Amino acid sequence: MPDKSAANWTADPKDITNLLAFFHSVRSRIGDGGNWDKTVLKEAEVHMAGLGAPVKGGPKVWTAIRNKWKDVRCCAGLLPCFCASGWNYSDELGFNVDDDNREAWGNFVKAHPQFRPFANHGWEHFKTMDEIVPSRARGLYVF
User: Fold this and answer.
1) Which residues contact 142 (CB under 8 A, 6 or more apart)?
2) Nearest-angstrom CA–CA distance, 110 and 96
3) Which of 29, 49, 56, 115 could staple 8 via S-S, CB 3.0–4.6 A?
4) Is the pTM of this model over 0.85?
């Protein structure tokens, strides 16, 4: 049974939007590995608390914010990789799964279940995350 005091990120979709808006405003302070230090996480906790009581679950404390950031960052980091591997993605249609590619999609989400919601629905935070997370591109001609 889930802890009633644990942060709930699904009850109010605006919670993630508000958190990412805060991180976007302090994006120059992100660490080299794409993570936030404890100071920024505590500031995010104060920011989230200032928006009012959560719809469901406990307050968004810095540890819950850190864990949610890891989930969101993982999704943002993997999405372009899978687009480059042959899956077409758009902000409106997601991966645009239809009868022609449904079996391949089923195999894909078995290995990567975090992409299941994006079968036919885009991710509204993709552009924001692209602005927050620094590029990990490497190579001779990367500037």
Assistant:
1) 135
2) 17
3) 56
4) no
